[in-house]
Amino acid sequence: MALLQILCYPDPRLHTVARPVDAVDARVRRLVDDMLETMYSADGVGLAATQVDVHERVIVIDTAPNLKRPHVLINPELVARSQELAVTDEGCLSVPEIYDKVQRHAQVTVRALNRAGETVEYEASGLLAVCVQHEMDHLLGKVFVEYLSPLKRDRIRTKMLKRLRDGRRS
Ligand code: GNR
Ligand code: NI
Predict the structure, then answer these.
(1) Whose CA is nearest to atom 7 of ligand 1?
(2) Is the pTM of this model over 0.85?
(3) How far apart are the first and last CA of the chain?
(4) Residue among 76, 77, 71 nearest 32 (CA)
């Protein structure tokens, strides 16, 4: 296993649209395992392949990292979304130390392939629903700060660029 480097906003590679995985083979399983190791090591509850500069539709999520029961979602699709919306304070490993409110569907039903290449489908609510939507946005090249006002986004962008100049890695 290996730790992967996480891209930081405003890296333009975060806006790449991921392509579907065509076979869940040893290469993809290794990517999944490296992403899980990277997510746990960074204390995140989710990670999309886009964030490690791999532009394929692969997501890992673990909303209870102590239990180490990860969700692996390959080629995820939302098959249902609740009308009800919910606002959550979100953060992102690609936008370190920034948290702000984002409104999303309160429940979603997601269908995907798991690490064994089997089709799985389940309903998610709470933090899991937030993560599924947050990670699926990454696969479309979208970072949560794009839901914020242009003013806030600009301030975040400036802060991140200053950090980069100051040589801070996160
Ligand atoms: O670790 C993460 N925490 C989090 C908190 C609230 C809403 C979404 C997230 S996802 C984030 C990890 C990450 O950046 N995934 O892309
Ligand atoms: Ni994120």
Answers:
(1) 90
(2) yes
(3) 22
(4) 71
